[in-house]
Amino acid sequence: MRLTFVALALGALSLPHTSRAQTTDTIRGGAACTMCRVEFKRLAVLGARGGEGEITSRPWWVARDGGGHYIVSGGLGETPIVFDARGRFVRRLGTLGDGPGEFRGPVMIRLGAGDSLYTFDFGQRRVSVLSPTFRYVRSFPVPQTLGDFLPARNGAIVANAPMRDAAHIGLPLHLIDSTGVASHSFGVARPLLLPTNKMSQEYRRLTPDGQGGFWSAFWTTRYRLEHWSSDGTLLQAIEREVPWYQPYTAVRPITRTSPPSPNINAIWIDSVGRLWTMVKVPAKDWLSGMSKVERTNEGVSHLSIVNSEAVYDMILEVIDTRRRRVVASQRIHGTFDWSPAPGLVEGYRETDDGSPTAEVWQVTLRSR
Questions:
Q1: How far from 66 is each of 92, 232, 361, CA to CA, in Å?
Q2: Are the C-beta atoms of 57 and 103 separated by less than 8 Å?
Q3: Could you give the CA distance from residue 270 to residue 343 in angstroms, rounded to a whole number?
């Protein structure tokens, strides 16, 4: 992969009880450090054609544990694959099915206390907990498909999910206990009662803050970051105003005059407490990666993405939340899908013969 650059930080979570209105800090303009640059180093290429570690499609999720293993989740009907730090196949997790330690896929993976693995299986709507040696420990159902989640104290999770029952509707964040019951919901001052085409406003990306709380980012519609304490209190809210991310109310169909909507793919806190954001935006020549003929779906015409590397750019920003400023901002032609761990980014790539792989890169902020 060729990277083209344009210059432009879990402690276990406690139980949340309440949310409270908080003044929003607006950050405008470019980066404070004009000499800062994000450097990339490729660490591993995951997936081998025809072998036990073959990846058959774009990975749904990639995580890295404390031992340096990468766990890759494929699509429906695939069990997670474990690779070592150099990208060599180690094993597959479980088998297909609905029993203990079995998966339907795809699977979302998060690290819990003691380097345990929490997996959410979309096919089962179930969270399973594995030991650091990948041994099955326990599982519990969840009432809704999750947008993201983080392990919490007492075996619970804090989850982002668009629940629709009377007690939780319109609230994007939920405490789900170790039996699968959503015991508390929070995340907005007033519930968001949204039509189906605007439900993306409820989805969040989550990351632990290293002090028992967590940060959330709107996945779509606006560049907004929120810091939550362990008791569910809103500590800080940041709204980023930039020309390349104009707020919107719903994801738009892509047409020749309507480019793809921007969204935040991942966030994390680095070792000195700075908040990194990974924002996907349309490239300057985004139409070159689209289909030539518009298709119609339910009466709405749209273009299809043929080459996502040509359609999107990725903007990495490093934010000093205490000083309320952007330290660095860098634009990359091409895109990454996810962050397997703080300081790492992962992207889907195909080899010359068309074999799917997942590349893992380390990102570091340097001053020239």
A1: 18, 27, 17
A2: no
A3: 7
